[in-house]
């Protein structure tokens, strides 16, 4: 008579279970899951440019001229915060919104 898996001796059944458990551990996902490492971001500066109204005095009176300011930051959040500071001061036009400029390019 052929023995089925349920009629095997307890020692043999324990060995089979241990083998299945070790096989499962060998093919399981690594600790932390699969693909938890974020993709590398290109290195560079975040830049923006604003145009603002610049009042100044000359020999024959007061003048209003447009001047430009370049914003350079190491993160997008910092660039956005500086851009908001400029914009909230009034008389400002955003010429270039924050964008990443890679090093060497």
SSE order and pairing:
Blueprint (H helix, E strand, L loop, with lengths): L9 H18 L16 E15 L2 E13 L2 H13 L3 E11 L3
Antiparallel strand pairs: 1-2, 1-3
Question: Overall pLDDT, averaged?
Answer: 80
Helix content: 25-40%
> What amount of the residues lies in strands?
35-45%
Total strands: 3
General description of the model:
With 105 residues, this protein is of the alpha+beta class. The protein contains 2 helices and 3 strands. It has helices spanning 10-27, 76-88; strands at 44-58, 61-73, 92-102. The protein has a 3-stranded antiparallel sheet with strand order 2-1-3, with helices on one face. β1 (44-58) and β2 form a beta hairpin. The longest helix has 18 residues, at 10-27. The model has no long low-confidence stretch (mean pLDDT 80).
